[in-house]
Amino acid sequence: MIFQLNQVWGNLISSLVLTSGDNHAAVTAVNASMIPEICGANFLPSADAAEALQRQPYEKIQMLVGIYLACMAAAALIVAIGVDSMKRYDTGRAVSGMGGIEMLMATLKLLVEPNQLMMITIMVFTGLQQAFFGADFTASFVSCAIGTGTVGYVMLTFGIADALGCVVTGYIAKVTGRIPLICGATVIHLCLLATLLLWRPQAHQAYVMFIIAILWGLCDSVWLVQINAFFGILFPGREEAAFSNFRLWESVGYIIAYIISPHLRTSSKTYVLAATMIVGVLFYFIVEFRDKKVKLSDNAKASSKGVDNKAFNVE
Fold this sequence. Notes:
It is a single chain. This protein has 315 residues and is mostly helical. The protein has one domain: Up-down Bundle (Growth Hormone, Chain: A), CATH 1.20.1250. It is 78% helix and 0% strand. It contains twelve helices and no strands. α1 runs antiparallel to α4, α8 packs antiparallel against α9 and α10 runs antiparallel to α11. The N and C termini lie far apart (58 Å).
């Protein structure tokens, strides 16, 4: 939750800076009658960005860079002075002691396991959907139809929903389990993608974008929290390597999204995202089934051994 708050403060700062003063670049340059034709699913960054997205004034960019650099310097200083050394917490407990090379080897070894291989698609999807929302949705819908000044507020809304979702879905999972949450996130995310394909945005429909941001943030919290938690259960004793794999393939999703972003229309990228999610969720359910089957088998063996021991002890 705390990590997700970076989106709240970062986007609040950017919106306040970009909308301050008489900044004509904060509003869309697209004629209102052309917004449904250019923006939304039809948007192609390499062809439409120059017309639809105005360049921000140089002084605004300088101000943003200065604020973010100051935040980075303050964060580094706080960590250096205020955070205790990890060695303090290593005393009296077993630690992995793995160095960078050992961690890399453990991460690569885990890649040959069937469960890990089947989880790759959903890990890539988590990165794809975050990059798509942060780059493609904000450009093709928010900036194009309304203006760059609104992007920060939409992303701020996404960040709040994401942060709250991380807490709330954790409690819900204790009651319902993981699978209903994954099913719910899948259905909602598919509906959101269908909306992006069918909806033709208008300048006066900013509220729709905020609703999409809230729902997308809640879905993102489910993907991040529940898939991370599942990795901890799936690979007991090898959590560090498992989480490293998660971040590795999530980053691959980011890379793929940013590589294809300028060259494909938003509609094409939406189809790619939907296909990746469907395949990833199907493989996830297969892994869940395999894991439950193994646990049932282990429990049956343990029960059988317990019965044998009791029979042996009867005089």
